[in-house]
Specification:
The chain contains no helices and eleven strands. Strands 2, 4, 5, 6, 9, 10 and 11 form a seven-stranded mixed β-sheet that branches. Strands 1-3-8-7 form a four-stranded antiparallel β-sheet, with no helix packed on it. By secondary structure, the chain is an all-beta fold.
Length: about 120
């Protein structure tokens, strides 16, 4: 089992910045892709950004140029730097990790709230 613990959510004004962190613990061997997803009220959960173990990244079009995902493999931690926040970025942000062993497993954090006021 892998546990993911997020931190760094909060409330900011439009144009502000936040940095989310997600630390993985437990049976972390085999974790490759880590990422962030978000879910706003009444909407489906959507991809924000992912990062491979070697640093390859993928971003949703809506956050390109504003958000940066990074990871520290030594600390088993993934980060999401969010700049130029917009009201439409407000959501619960979830950390995600995928683990490849004999099978592939997927884990989710508990979520952290991001609120952006105009």
């Amino acid at each position: 089992q892998v546990q993911l613990v997020e931190s760094g959510g909060g409330s900011v004004q439009t144009g502000g910045s936040l940095r989310l962190s997600c630390a993985a613990s437990g049976s972390i061997f085999g974790i490759n892709t880590m990422g962030w997803y978000r879910q706003a009220p009444g909407k489906e959960r959507e991809l924000v950004a992912t990062i491979g173990r070697r640093g390859s990244t993928n971003y949703a079009d809506s956050v390109k140029g504003r958000f940066t995902i990074s990871r520290d493999n030594a600390k088993n931690t993934v980060y999401l730097q969010m700049n130029s926040l917009k009201p439409e970025d407000a959501a619960v942000y979830y950390c995600n990790a995928r683990q490849s062993l004999l099978s592939t497993y997927e884990y989710w954090g508990q979520g952290t709230q991001v609120t952006v006021s105009s």
